[in-house]
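Quick one - first record:
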Amino acid sequence: MTLIEIRAPGRIENSQIGVFLAYASPRGRALIDRRLYLPKDSWFADGPRRSAAGIPEQTVFATKPHLARDMIAAALDAGTPARWVTGDEVYGQDPSLRAELEDRGIGYVLAVSCATRVRINDGCTPVRADTAAASLPEDAWQDRSAGAGAKGPRVYRWAWIALDGDGARRQLLVRRNTATGERAFYLCFTPEPTPLSTLVRVAGVRWSIEECFQAAKGQVGLDHYQVRHFTSWHRRITLAMLALGVLAFLVAEATTTPTGPGRLPIDLTANEIRHLMNALILDQPRSPAQVLHWSIWRRTHQGRARHSHYQRRLAT
């Protein structure tokens, strides 16, 4: 399960900021919940503006992490199977969110800023996250892939530090770019002893969720609207999420085995399934055989291009 925050309409002047909950698994990913974030000063202090936008009177101000906690709790209470939560800095900096996940026994890998204070040396020494990382010896770093990207595995150098004196339960995870040396930091909680490779994999899920939003915008029009009403926003976003969920389900059903970098043609994607549906339903002059033939040709070409990207990336 992954948290990520976006500006839903892509236009800051609309004052519409959505906090979304997405679910990711080996079979696919999709958005499963959403909340409209309303800034306190510009909305809750302006009664006429709230009334014009149709915001219910019982709606109270909630921070983005608070909205995230509500969505996670609702998903877990509904029986959503999830072992991990990951999210951006705005969520990682919230101690209440981390505490609630720990109380539920849910592991997390949450991004935090370099200035975050952590306790090392069995919880005896409080330091900044970047200071703790700077003291690591070179042999503490390991090359690990955070998942496959468009041009090959996303390989970074990773290290971890036990926190609070509890060893295997809380850690500071540090990612270092192999080319630039730029670092990113994550606070982690593991209900049971967990290898570094698992934490790296969970941290990498955040990038796959970015693909979820790209698909939602490109395939189902998540940001293609100009509504100004509270109810209209929720209706539009929910409809787009439902359409994306249908595409994600069809992709999972069509994928029987994982697609390797050299396999041709590649498996059906959400974009290809939408293209096929449009062609088979709206393009009547073309026969199903023609439509499927061009689909196989396109996916074969995409597979060759991806394989070339992978080979070039691995060679460098």
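second record:
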Amino acid sequence: MREAYRLAVEALKYDEVPVGAIVVRKNQIIGSGFNKTRSSGDPTAHAEIVALRDAASRAGNYRLPYADIFVTIEPCTMCAGALVHARIRKLYFATPEPRSGAVISTAQVLDNQSLNHRVTFEQGLCENECAQLIRDFFAAKR
């Protein structure tokens, strides 16, 4: 999670919402990313999607079995769905996102029984630091 946090801080340099993500398989980082929606003009360029694209490119496969993802904030609906499609094994996220988080906050996408793949999840790694980074970013914008 420390590396995901470092990437979130990197996003600040581009005036992006500070969210970072890494994909790990066999204790190796195989993908990484931070939010790039504003700088790329791409509404799908959330940290999770950027990290999944990076990992899939390196792995040579859009499916990433036995891979885990670490994200500094709870994924949205789009990103939670992408985790399922990529066959991510486990999601670790630092802090809830009460407005658009789709794992425990506004929806429970990963608990949908009709999905053909299950992504387990764990919350709370580096929660205080990641939550403060987001709070500080939005406080500065207001």
